[in-house]
């Protein structure tokens, strides 16, 4: 099912919890040779876009700079038939990237910061952190759960 709003596609309320719960997502970017490359990532939603933290130097960061087409898939671990997939274009920014990374780190691990807890502090000087904001072109959700309200009841 594709959910298209008047101002573009949005994630339906029935599936927004997949971006607010502690669920890892699969981010797929395109390699220079056209092969897809997928990575497990932490993700959140800023009210407009899905956001993922990465670096300019990592493979996904290099892929996104060369080709901003991206997809992000989140599968409900409690019901693997329930998912949301966001297909869109990446906007990359360094502004607020460390703060965003630390926010995701607190959320997913309980640690106060990424550097010094998940990766060594020295690693920070070797990479440029960025936020990948995904501007959705299409939002796909499973057909079974898209006709239910957030409480699991069938919509009339």
Detailed description of the structure:
This protein has one domain (4-146): Pnp Oxidase, Chain A. The strands form 2 sheets. A 7-stranded antiparallel β-sheet has the order 4-3-7-8-9-6-5. With 156 residues, it is α+β, with helices and mostly antiparallel strands. The protein has helices at 17-20, 59-66, 97-109, 143-146, and strands at residues 4-5, 8-9, 25-30, 36-41, 43-45, 50-55, 69-75, 83-93, 129-141. The longest helix has 13 residues, at 97-109. Helix content is 19%, strand content 36%. Mean pLDDT is 88; it is low at 1-6. The protein is globular. It is built from 4 helices and 9 strands; from the N terminus they run E-E-H-E-E-E-E-H-E-E-H-E-H.
Mean pLDDT: 88
Number of E strands: 9
- Kindly report the name of the CATH homologous superfamily: Electron Transport, Fmn-binding Protein, Chain A
The best one-word shape is globular
Identify the CATH class.
Answer: Mainly Beta
Radius of gyration: 16 Å
Q: Specify the number of helices.
A: 4
In summary, what is this structure?
The chain is of the alpha+beta class and 156 residues long. 19% of the residues lie in helices and 36% in strands. A 7-stranded antiparallel beta sheet has the order 4-3-7-8-9-6-5. A two-stranded antiparallel ribbon has the order 1-2.
Question: Which helices and strands appear, and what pairs or packs with what?
Answer:
Layout: E1 4-5, E2 8-9, H1 17-20, E3 25-30, E4 36-41, E5 43-45, E6 50-55, H2 59-66, E7 69-75, E8 83-93, H3 97-109, E9 129-141, H4 143-146
Antiparallel strand pairs: 1-2, 3-4, 3-7, 5-6, 6-9, 7-8, 8-9
């Amino acid at each position: 099912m594709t959910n298209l709003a008047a101002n573009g596609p949005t994630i339906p309320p029935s599936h927004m919890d997949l971006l607010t719960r502690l669920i890892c997502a699969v981010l797929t970017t395109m390699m220079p040779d056209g092969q897809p490359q997928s990575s497990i990532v932490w993700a959140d939603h800023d009210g407009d876009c899905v956001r993922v933290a990465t670096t300019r130097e990592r493979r996904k960061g290099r892929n996104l700079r060369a080709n901003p087409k991206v997809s992000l898939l989140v599968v409900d671990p409690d019901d693997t038939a329930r998912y949301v997939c966001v297909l869109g274009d990446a906007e990359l920014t360094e502004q607020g990237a460390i703060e965003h990374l630390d926010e995701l780190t607190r959320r997913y691990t309980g640690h106060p910061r990424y550097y010094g807890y998940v990766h060594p502090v020295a690693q920070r000087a070797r990479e440029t952190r960025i936020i990948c904001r995904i501007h959705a072109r299409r939002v796909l959700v499973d057909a079974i759960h898209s006709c239910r309200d957030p409480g699991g009841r069938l919509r009339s």
